[in-house]
Amino acid sequence: MAADKSEVLQGTLDLMVLKTLQALGPLHGFGIARRIEQLSEDVLTLNEGTVYTSLLRLQQKSWIASEWGVSENNRRARFYSITKRGLKQLAVETENWERIAAVIGRVLALEVRA
Amino acid sequence: MSDRAFTFVTKLKALFTQRRADAAFDEELNIHLEMLAEKYEREGMSAREAARAARRQFGNATVLKQRQREARTTMFFANVWRDVRYGVRQLAKTPVFTIVCVLTLALGVGANTAVFSVMHAVLVRMLPVQDASRVFYLHTTGWPDGVSQTGDADTSFSYAIYRALSERSGLQEVMAYIPMSSTGNAPVRVGTEPEEAAGDMVSGNYFSGLGVGTRLGRGFVQNDEDNHTSVTVISESFWTTHYGHSRDVIGKTLYIKSIPFTIVGVAIKGFEGTEGRRSLDFWIPLQSGPEFNAWGSPAEHGTYLTRQTFWCMKLLVRTAPGVSREQALARAQAVFEQAAYTGITHKHAGEPTYQLSFTDAKQFDSQDDSFARPLKTLMAMVGLVLLIAMSNVVMLLMARNASRQREFAVRLALGAGRKEMVRQLLTESVLIVALGGIAAWAFALGATRALGAWAHIESNLQPDRTVLWFTLSVLLLLALVFGLAPLRAAMSSGSEMMLRSSAMVSQSSSQMMRAGNAVIVTQIAMCVVLLVGAGLLLGTLRNLLNTPLGQKPQGLLVFGVYPQHTHTAEERIAFFVSLQQRLRTIPGVESVSMVANRPGSGWSNNDSGLLVDSHKPNGIEPEQASFRGNIVGADYFHTMGVQVVQGRDFSDADSPSAPKTVIVNETFAKKYLGASNAVGHILTDPKGTDPSLIIGVVKDHKYTGITEQARPMLWTAYMQGGPVNQLNVEMRVQGDPMAMLPTVRKVLTQIDPDMPMLEPLTQSAVFEQSISQQALFARLAGCFGMLAVVLIATGLYGTLAYRVSRRSAEIGVRMALGAQRSQVVWMVLRGSLLLCAAGVVLGVPLAIAAGKGLESSLYGMKSLNATSYVFAILGVALVALLASAVPARRAANVSPTSALRME
Q1: B60 touches chain A (CB under 8 A)
Q2: Which residue of B87, B323, B529, B837 pairs with B428 in a disulfide if CB–CB is 3.0 to 4.6 A?
Q3: What is the pLDDT of residue B241?
Q4: pTM score, whole prediction
Q5: Which residues of chain B are within 8 Å of residue A53 when distances are taken between CB atoms?
Q6: Is A62–B72 a contact, with Cβ atoms under 8 angstroms apart?
Q7: Chain A environment of B71 (Cβ under 8 Å)
Q8: What ipTM was estimated for this complex?
Q9: What are the residue ranges of helices labelled H in B17-169?
């Protein structure tokens, strides 16, 4: 079963986290993990702990900010939200990703000449 | 890049919130796990299963926590702190090594900083004025015939030129400033005690035109110049020393030449006037009274305001914005050419056009290079000293690191990374450099002050920010060199190699030894250059000190007197005659005389044009007969200890009513009378008027300074006329001349309470001051030479001692095989003598080249002076022998059995 899942590509996790925060607004780590799990439709394996590594990295770059709040089931939780710098970075990264994806797509689409 | 910066700042902040962040993250993880477990429970797992599944899904929490902690903050400081502590321990373990390194650096870098600081202040630093790039000193290449002139040849201009330039040249500002006297000082009184202070008489736009503000009160305005108001601005330091920073100083009265001036302002801190090495205490607006004639000159023939041909004002200009320096100069030149002839009846045919020039508004007007040349030479010398010091420390570090190879090997074997080792070594060298740097800065502050005092520079020479940057960059460079140079020695071989016997290693380091030899040879060569230079300069100093002066300055006290409240020449003569009578009565005074220009002070009256008995002087055109002159009192030659060869000295009988008399020197008699028998001849000016009788011939003796060549000279008596405002009293006393000061001061106060003694000195000191620059130069060169020798000695000793200790096994083997102690000693000594010889061979040609450069600074000796070379070579050889004596003895005392057993 594990063989069917792809490892999360290095660096793409940050992009996913950023995009999630941009789309859904302030969210705690658990919520982010759920969202990624949901969207990836079980294609990607993810140690949920690595989400926190990514969150710390993003925070150090000031792309996201965090504050403590109360979760939907009345628990204390740390909520992360995207900053202005983060939005800018997201736009850049998204464009990069799309460009690379397009290139890779074209490369893979090359047909072997007979 | 900015992302990295953000990351770094966040990490730095995290340093201080470490514990809280850990706790917060723990909480965050637990909540996450709980929520995950709840989710699984909701999906139907048991509580225990859910918790386990949650942990599995989450991954290794402990590893994550650790990683988060490391990622959250930076390990940089923890690591550096660890390195520093380790480095301090290592340095403390070898205190002698550390002290030698730090002191070497302190002396090397400190000397460089001090000399650079002085050089920077003198050659580069600008006046602290606004927009200094548009401010210039004005210079001229000459002045028309018929102009009388202050002696400050190329910076003197007439009042007419000043006015013409201000009004018509298109320059934004023309600032004029005139010293109070030829020494720059004037008698002043703050309370009851009269003293002298340095001041300038300046134009109304002086402060505003330069853009120099005031700390308190106001600067001058045009009205102050136009009405010659009795107001003064004092300097910040005068305010501090005389008014204790009191804010009530504005409105107080300062007596200058016993005229009351109201203090209206205190100049900003750091502005000490525009007189180069002299720092000023006060400024007053241009005055019109006769006592305030320019440079304290007598006003018999009018003041600088009324006598149009009196060139005495120094000028600074500020060009208008948008006008280039060349354009401004061209316009000023046109105005100058016209204004220069104001008051002169006709221009001589073929008289050249005198050219104006602008020089940058530096603290020291750069026209004369009397400071620049010695300073540049000194800078080169301290540069060499620094090189020697640096290579010394490098060699010491290399030796030290090489002997620490075992330590490094162990650390490498235990898993230390090469990166960590490099960082560790760099930290140690940075520590040494930092300690040395701090010591160097302290040393430089003291040395700069001393340099300023010895060179008679009052203005501020202290290191400023530029100098600090210079020193810091030198230190940074040193830290890098010290960190990187010895690395190869330490890291060259792998851990497995070093763990083996160290005796083996000693053979593998011949390449290192060759490098070390090259360094020592270079050092010795530089040392030879420094010693030869020092020898030449010290020889020059000895020649200067031993030059016969032709007089006896020992036991002579000299001080200036400026008679206040005297208005005519007759009153002044009467004043000085009675002063002389009064001073003669002081017990312990052998004789008293007066002189206008102090011998040895550099000042002289230079004149030309005379007839002897109404004929051409010895066939020379009367106009071309030039001579130096001085105005003196009765008993002058007797008081000075100058031999009267023929005739007599001046006496009280040479009074205003007696026929005019003159005394000449032997050179004068020989050149203009063609015989040594000159007494009885009559001298007149070229028109045949103003006759005076030669009453005596004196032996040639030094007048302006020690290096002066004998020239025709004549002396006249002040009692018989000659414009005199201020005279110096020469007193021959028993015992220490300076001990007579209080008595004399009391006598002067009785005559006039406002009359200070101006620049009281012993006459010997006046002559010493005339060579103070050469003396300073020579002594410093001597110091640097000595410093180089000491450095070489320690460096050589350190290297040899290290080599002997490395070779103790080899020496043991040699001795076991029958080598004699003397052979072992000779082996060590021969090594160091060979290095020394190589250094000398390399150094002598360099020294010859350097000596050529010094030639103009030498007096009474050639640059190829054999004694200097012999001393330098002997000195170096002696040092080499001394430095190798201890290691050689240690080598001789190696016991073969224990040396072999040790390995």
Answers
A1: yes
A2: B87
A3: 92
A4: 0.69
A5: 64, 67-68, 71
A6: no
A7: 53, 56-57, 60
A8: 0.85
A9: 18-42, 47-58, 61-72, 76-93, 95-119, 159-168
